[in-house]
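Feature request, filed as a ticket because there's no other form

It would be nice if the structure record came with a short human-readable summary line next to the tokens. Right now we just get the raw output. Example of a typical job, pasted below so the devs can see what we mean:
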Amino acid sequence: MFDPDIAPSGTLLGLLQRGRGDGTLHALAAPRAEALAALNQCVLRDPRRDWQVENRSLYYARLYLDLDGDLAELEEHLFHPDDLLDPAEERTGLALAVLGHLASYGRDDALALLRRYAATGGNWSWALDELAVRDDDAALAALGEAVVARFPRTPEGEAALAAAVRDAFEPRPWRIWAEDPHAPATAARVRAAREQGSFDRWQRQLRPAGPRPGWSVREVLDWAQEGLSLHPPQQRHVPATRCLNAVAGPEDRLEIIEAAAFGPEAARATALRYLAEHDDPQALELIEAAAADPSGAVADAAVTAFERMRGPAALERARVWVHRTDALGAAAAGMLACRGAAYDAALVLGALRRTVRTEGPDAPVLWDLVDGAGRLGIGCAAPVLRHLYRETSSSHLRGRAARALAATDPSFAAGFAVECLWDCEETTRELAARHVATADSRVVDQLRRLAADPAEEAEVQTAACDRFGPDATPV
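Raw output as currently delivered:
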């Protein structure tokens, strides 16, 4: 089921929240006030399932341009008193990214808002990153004193400043401030912070906290388990597995098998992952037993270990486990979708239908199952793929559904491919540009816009340009 803040897929708000191309097309046809209200709601209350990987900012910025929307509500959101209490990136990141794109398109009001927020806002570092790739040197230099003044002249403040300089996504503003002759005090602090950051990195390299050469298998397993006793707990089984790969030999196999069967949580997770990566003959039985363990950490580690297996034995076991209704069954279905043969198509299709029916259009395993439907060319999967395309709230999963439809549905070029040209994900727009039928004049106009827009990704521009060249794909 969808999260409560995601509107139904047939509404204008629901389309815009999902980042679907039809959202833009419907917004341009709707009354302007209604479209702007829905657009503002999306930007002010980020609807993405995973805000760190899903794209919406360029999609929303283009719609602001098309609707000639003002930025009053974004300004009120950014400078609301809540900004002082909740500086988390999730609250303002999307609005700042939209302003960044609008500034690239020449909206001076967006540029002014970014400058003001970088000087006074809680999520100032994000705004500064947007300005770093768009603003001129003089405007960035003018922000230096306000930004650096955020850090008090105390040992704690100087340490925080050093961390901010060291971890900056875009270093350009800090370089400008370190060399600014008009603010010598600020320049001196930034230079000192840069030196301190370099020294901190050097110290960490000299004093690694992890395992040392010469550790035994037992010491690596103990190190993994010790991570759970820290505050906050550290999940170390992944790096511990890499350490086991370096220190374990054939003579240690029985000790690792024993840890996988009877060890404490982190040690057991480490041993399971190690055995799976080496396709050990005992791995599958140990994974099946661990998947039913009451400890969620052990069960999750068992499933993850199985997903990493690449041998034929794991694929054969996946054909048996695919009928299970637990996480191990989902992992088996995903393995068949990614690596199965043509005769596994019925199993993949059955898992796809069952997952959508029981878990809805946003289940994690659907990513692999949708890819598998396209890879195996399962034509009769097209109806469920169309359903997923319409209903999922994940723009990445929708893009995968579009790619699978391009491989399985003959109507894709004249159907969903048209709206995919306006999709929020660049990979989906690229797919559409390569497959879409050009009988509709809107399609040709949008292809020209994508080819000429400097804010567009290079791959999308290339795909759009190819449709007009001498070797253009016939339609």
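Something like this underneath would help us a lot:
The radius of gyration is 26 Å.
The chain has a mean pLDDT of 90.
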